[in-house]
Amino acid sequence: MSLDTLPRASRNTHRRDRPPGRRWRSRLDVKAMPYFLVSPYFILFAAFGLFPLAFTLYYSLYDYDLTGTTEWAGLGNYTALLGDDDFWRATVNTVAMFVIATVPQMLLALFLANALNKHMRFRLPIRMSVLLPLVTSVVAVAVVFTQLFARDWGLVNYLLGLVGVENTNWRAERIPSWIAIATMVDWRWTGYNAIIFLAGMQTIPKDLYEAASIDGASRRRQFWQITLPMLRPTMIFVVLNSTIGGLTLFSEPMTFYNGNPDGGSQGQFQTVAMFVYKEAFREFDYGYASAAAWLLFLLILIGAAINFLFVRRIGGTR
Amino acid sequence: MALTVTSCGSGGTPESSAPASSAAAQPVTIRVQTFGGGENFGYKNAIAKWNAEHKDIQIKHENLTDQFEQQYWPQMIQWLTSGSGAGDVVGIDEGGMGLAKARTEWWADLKEYGLESRKADFPAWKWENGVAADGKIFALGTDIGGMSLCYRKDLFEKAGLPSNRDEVSALWPSWDEFMNVGKKFQAKVKDTKWADGTNTLYQVVLYQEAAKNGNVSYFDTSNNLIVDKNPAVKTAFDFAMKMSQQGMTAKLRNFTDEWATGTQKGSFATVGCPSWMLGVVSGNAGDDGKGKWDVAAVPGGGGNWGGSWLAVPKQSKHPKEAAMVADYLTQAQTEASIFTDFGNMPSNTKAQQDPAVQGAKNEFFNDAPIGEIFAKSAASLQPVFLGVKHAQVKNAVESVIQGMDDGSVPYDKAWQQLVDDAVKAAG
Questions:
Q1: What confidence tens digit (pLDDT) does each residue in A79-133 have?
Q2: 8 Å CB contact of B81 and A67
Q3: Chain B residue closest to A150 (CA)?
Q4: Model's pTM, two decimal places?
Q5: Which of B253, B257, B204 is nearest to B65 (CA)?
Q6: Interface test with B, best of A55, A86, A173, A260 (most B CBs within 10 A)
Q7: Taking CB atoms and an 8 Å cutoff, what residues of chain B touch A281?
Q8: ipTM of the complex
Q9: Is the Cβ of A264 closer than 8 Å to some Cβ of chain B?
Q10: Nearest 5°: phi and psi at B7?
Q11: Each residue's pLDDT tens digit, B190-216
Q12: Fewer CB atoms inside 10 A, N or C side of chain B?
């Protein structure tokens, strides 16, 4: 173990002047303590991360009916999933909603952060208020948005009606439903990302901007040439975080259809996470759901990799 | 422990029959979990009465959600399989009974608490559905279907149609005539549709037709899927399609928030009403709807949609007290008062014969003589067999029928998709 190198110094100094029992104990102290101190995370991770992961992997190989039988299925669940139109539709929905939600969200958060990064009065309360949407319960958000986007009595349709647009059935049409849900997601998470961006911006040395000003670079130029490139590590974090959040999207579309995991009468806005839930807990097809969960995991890995490669190039001249 | 919880099989006094386990130390709390919109099981008054009389056993009523197939039942299954979380008494919709009956290990045996004495209180089919193959009595019947049509009296007047319930009933001996009246209605009242959506009336017709086709719907009695073979399904589907094609629905899916809002705001003029739906409609419409709604006969004769059971999960820590509560909630007296208060038709035959039930009127629905409408036909109601996977298939079918109405499934492809999706859901 690499930890061996760490306590060596202390071991030498203590060896001679201690009785054997205490020596043993102090050795235990030195050796075990670090493990003990870091253990909470690993215990939690094992219980809530590793175990479910292994559990789902195990059951994804079985035909496991939640209410009864368990039979070996091998890779049967996976091959069935790859041929399941519903699964692919859910995948398309998830990716599409992710793109629709995330792109404007990133831009908005970035500009919001930039605006908050200036000197102004009441800076703290204003910065705090950006976080407010995040602390509201997701169910409350969904209830409000569900009503805003109601077909018959919703505010959005009413406003669109003022400019002559006919009532949109936000739950029945695919792209409108994606937009409605993306709005919900953005409302909740833009402020959160903005605060992280802001934190990143504050680590950028002020003299860079001063030097740029002296060189005659405009504010806008400074943003593109200094802020963005220097922000890249933060951006990688935010984008990866949003990728995971976006691809596991569940609560908003779920509440948008009255807690029905179908996500619209024909799965118009069913996400993969909802698909997993539906298969496991409504159809009781736990094995199938486990396999889908693993494919979702794969999808997230791919999504994260693509975004990582993409973000690495942002604002760069390399 | 063979405690004589009830002695009321032969007309004893129901609630007080239990020897109120004299050691009144800590009151035992019995959680009763139900589902459904509006006033759902109608337990509000019955439970208040029990709680006032039983200091040692307090009932806590949790109506979890208005969605049975989507939320309540999946959640319940998780609780039942994992061994904790379920209430002491839980409601089960007819659609879940196939599965409940197949998993007797989930339930306490009510025989142990003397409840086999209740057999005589129920029609044979209602009782037998609560008895598993191994003889375990696991559930007692609450309400039954019965059919009517709820309509908006005030809107009928606005459309120049007769609004008196007998005249209204006479308007639609058949579903075709029902649609003809609807056309006249929609021509007069522009911003209101004739029916709530496709699904509610689809279910009404399905149960009517099932009674004519061997009392089966999606599964035959050996649990084989017969969606594509049972003419009842096709007839009901065709009717729903016709309604939708002629633009006579408000395109609302039943038991959603938008549907509830639509009830309140008058988006539709009629809704298919099994007896328990009266409580849902009045609950959704709120006090403002009082007197605006009324109840008429359903086109095409009777049928038996819905109805529930109460079971005691094995995981309950107080199965004895839970059995007492289940017993109380299904007593003739209780079921009769639920009917007069909220409209859920009793399955208890003694309650059905109760003069108070036979003569009951419902205040919300313009003092409609619901006793006459429902109770008279109760004895003749036929059960419809529902398979183990009924809840899943029902959901798949409803989604297609709703999709047809909201435009996401083309009419000419709808039937094929209905069959395909049903096969998938049953698989």
A1: 999 999 999 999 999 999 999 999 999 999 999 999 888 888 888 888 888 888 8
A2: yes
A3: B258
A4: 0.85
A5: B257
A6: A260
A7: 74-75, 77-78
A8: 0.83
A9: yes
A10: -125, 20
A11: 989 999 999 999 999 999 999 999 999
A12: N
